[in-house]
Amino acid sequence: MYNPKSTKAEEFICHEEVLDSLKFADEKKDDIKYVKSIIEKAKLRKGLSHREASVLLACDNEEINNEMYELAAQIKKDFYGNRIVMFAPLYLSNYCVNGCVYCPYHYKNKHIARKKLTQEEVKQEVIALQDMGHKRLAIEAGEDPINNPIEYIIECINTIYSIKHKNGAIRRVNVNIAATTVENYKKLHDAGIGTYILFQETYHKESYEKLHPTGPKHNYAYHTEAMDRAMQGGIDDVGLGVLFGLELYRYELAALLMHAEHLEAVYGVGPHTISVPRIKKADDIDPTAFDNSISDEIFAKICALIRISVPYTGMIISTRESQEVREKVLKLGVSQISGASRTSVGGYTEEERPHDSEQFDVSDQRTLDEVVKWLMELGFIPSFCTACYREGRTGDRFMSLLKSGQIQNCCHPNALMTLKEFLEDYASEETKEIGEKLIREELKNIPKDNVRKIAENYLDNIHLGKRDFRF
Ligand code: SAM
User: Fold this and answer.
1) What is the Å distance from ligand 1's center to 341 Cα?
2) Atom 13 (ligand 1) nearest CA
3) For the segment 81-116, what is each residue's pLDDT rounded down to a tens digit?
4) Which residues lie below 8 Å from residue 429, measured CB to CB, with a gap of 6+?
5) What is the pTM of this model?
6) Which one, 31, 142, 403, 423, has the greatest CB density within 10 A?
7) How far is the CA of 165 from the centre of ligand 1 (A)?
8) Which positions ≥6 away from 304 have C-beta within 8 Å?
9) Is the CB of 144 under 6 A from ligand 1?
């Protein structure tokens, strides 16, 4: 029944295979010789299967776990250097016809303020985001065919790309909207989106159906097969995710990796990103009502395991997590983080953080300048780079760049140049000082002399007011 090459949800996320994997993990977790052989395999940097990752997740040997953390940190360095890509979510509409029991946008919630941005409001939100320094957005919307049809989403994307305020520009729009048809994915692709992101929430079918009791999202197969339709619609960068806390984490990790294996088996390219959200308090949602919440330690272990199991997949962490947790997982493999996020519709144009239409409470409430400064003080390069997709390096072409080892001659200078733009246009004096020093130091880490010289020239030009250079 289990078949990663099938395009049927119940065959590529086969419940029995998940259960067998967990049983296998329980049997093997204390077999130190076998567990060590999995770590050795992971060191080859070609990833691990869902079964192997499940064994490591179940293993509670401290020495092995420490080795796994070290390896995750090393793979992170080898594949992503010290760059961290920055983005912000933009909530377009919280009208929703679904009944998701963990989300305050569920249709039965009558007291949450319902809002949908007009194109003028989209423009004002984008200007506010550009004025912080953002270049990359993830647009978010509830599912509502009447209020938020695909035409509305496309119109918003066009508006977002069209706004050039001062030196600002949104250069990549990722999209996190409900599962839709191949035809609609084609429209999103034609509108020039970056990644199509859709969280599975839970891979456990029975729980999924209970957690999504009503509305189109109730259909487990339609939701689980969404990435297949997205790929058929021409989108080759897709982002997976699980909402941790809904189901047993061991089940979720095995199934999440099976999903990645499925995409690789059928389309020759795995997921572009994996997100790891945890349930948060929100309007009428109490996270303690869900009894599968995971500790910060398990959360960190999951992040490390994702890093070593799918080394070529970016990992995203949002402001749902605190500064402290973010700091821990940044080292273990996270490659993208949001900054200064507001999860309410129209939130960026308000003086004070509004709560009346929020999707969830934000733990990390710092400004983008503070997040950028913090990252640099931790030794990371905050990157506002969007070059790959604009140069057509998506899907397997992006993966080839990663595998070619040329990242340091490409992503590294691109990160420095986009950071320089941020420093010139938006940073505080203190952040600017730290950033300029970092850029000078990091230029030395560009291996090719000619690339370094070109990058230096571009940086001078950015100082003189020119923008948008890229390799
Ligand atoms: N409505 C779309 C869908 O069905 O996928 C768009 C996504 S929604 C705006 C973004 C994500 O927020 C959801 O997929 C869910 O995982 C997450 N989310 C919902 N309620 C949450 C909560 N209380 N705490 C944390 N994350 C939550």
Assistant:
1) 14
2) 199
3) 999 999 999 999 999 999 999 999 999 999 999 999
4) none
5) 0.97
6) 142
7) 30
8) 68, 69, 72, 332, 333
9) no
